[in-house]
Amino acid sequence: MAGFFSKERIIAPSSYNRWLIPPAALAVHLCIGMAYGFSVFWKPLGNALMGSDGKPLAACAAGATTFAEKLAGTGRALFATDCNWTQFDLGWMYTLFFVLLGCSAALWGGWLERAGPRKAGSVATLCWAGGLLISAFGVYSHQLWMMWLGSGVIGGVGLGLGYISPVSTLIKWFPDRRGMATGLAIMGFGGGALVGSPIATKLMAYFATPTEVGVWQTFLVLAVAYAVFMLCGSLGYRVPPTGWQPAGWKPPAAKASNGMIATRHVHLKNAHKTPQFWLLWLVLCMNVSASIGIIGAAAPMLQETFGGILIHQPDIGFADIKADEALTAAAAAIAAGFVGLISLFNIFGRIAWATSSDKLGRKQTYFIFFVLGALLYAAASYGADVKSLAIFGAALCVIVS
Question: Which residues pair with 56 in a beta bridge?
Fold first, then answer.
């Protein structure tokens, strides 16, 4: 059985159609990309425990205003079963997701190259789907620590392995279009929330009862569905034979400014000893942190910044909207549409920027990111100050691309 998942088992013949690999990569990334969409569970989970009067119980951190008080409330919420969770408690899931994604990719990237993408993808499937199952039990038993362990820690490891295995495989198949190949893989990661969030919302509505919010049942369904799609994608991976090259393609000269391979090769084990590694790490950390922060807070940010402007009533503020159920629903619908819009920019920006880097070069592309990013953040701030929805929205859409 172990041989079935081995790297040697999936070496493709030279005539293999390399365009069969992107759909397999997309199947995996669309599943793990739901990590971006976990915020759809926050509000239902905050109302999971009901009192005898049919109203949600108080939160574990009820009345907390300072960061220290909220943190103390989270400490209580980890093991308490008699109080509800706040968005602050649940928001730590995002931290666990992306910290574990980076750590697992760094720790087991070398193992992936030795073991092959099929084995790595299968382990990612077990971690991501298994983490959802553990989270389902955590929600059912109202144990926050179990959610953190399931989807946050174990699922985070699945994110890391599931993220890099398609990228590594596609780069091998598309040495002539490395940027495009990377974009094809990570495009699915950006689209995971766009596909998964509406499905999760409908599932929660289907399973909801007067005493249940339907989250743990939704986790169960998603775990099974993601396991099937991710396993199919992982089994669809193939690696090219040693020395394989696309027909008619010749490796570029080492002096090319946009080449991926430097003239002085640095082994993976020694990469972290170079200043270039840490500079690239810093660039990526800053870029990703900003975009994740925007995606995770886009809906409330838009509503709190523009208030009644969203619903063509500029004279009322966000507090007035919150006090009216109909206005709240209208503003929330517009904010949800905005989240969908920036998700689309996030999807297509990944493939567009990655493909353009094949022409512009990696250094030039990073330079554009920083210059354009600085201008766009200033534009977003200006748009918020002058209440220009067009400037604010356009700036954020391009930023997350």
Answer: 50
CA–centroid distance for 360 within its chain = 26
Per-residue pLDDT for 271 more than 60?
A: yes
pLDDT digits (tens, 9 = 90+) for 213-253: 889 999 999 999 999 999 999 999 998 888 888 877 777 66
Give the tokens for residue 354.
Answer: 């990655």
Q: Which of 121, 203, 130, 151 is nearest to 35 (CA)?
A: 151
Domains of the chain: 1-51+67-242 (1.20.1250.20), 271-401 (no CATH)
CA angle, corner 272, sides to 270 and 277, nearest 5? 120
Rounded Cα gap, residues 367 and 179, in angstroms:
16
User: Which two three-digit tokens encode residue 260?
Assistant: 């991926």
Q: Which letter does DSSP use for residue 149 in this model?
A: I
> Which amino acid, 8?
E
Instruction: Name the 3-class secondary structure at 59.
Output: strand
Q: What is the pLDDT of residues 166-206, one digit of tens each?
A: 888 888 888 888 777 777 777 788 778 778 888 888 898 89
Compute, in degrees rounded to 10, the torsion defined by CA atoms 222, 91, 209, 131.
30
Task: Give the amino acid at 9.
Answer: R
Q: How confident is the model at residue 132 (pLDDT cuts 50, 70, 90)?
A: very high
> Per-residue DSSP letters for 188-246?
HHHHHHHHHHHHHHHHHHHH-BTTB-SHHHHHHHHHHHHHHHHHHHHHT--BPPTT---
Q: Is the Cβ–Cβ distance between 62 and 219 less than 8 Å?
A: no
Q: With contact defined as beta carbons under 8 Å apart, do 140 and 193 qualify? A: no
Place of tokens 């027909």: 247
In the 8-state DSSP scheme, what is residue 107? Answer: H
The 10s digit of each residue's pLDDT in 272-328 is 788 877 887 787 777 777 777 777 677 777 877 887 787 777 777 777 776 776 777
Nearest residue to 179 (alpha-carbon basis) of 299, 353, 51: 353
Distances from the Cα of 87 to the Cα of 91, 122, 124, 203, angstroms: 6, 32, 27, 21
The CA distance from 4 to 119, in Å, is 9
Q: Give the model confidence (pLDDT) of 67-94 as tens digits.
A: 888 888 888 888 888 888 888 888 888 8
pTM (predicted TM-score): 0.80
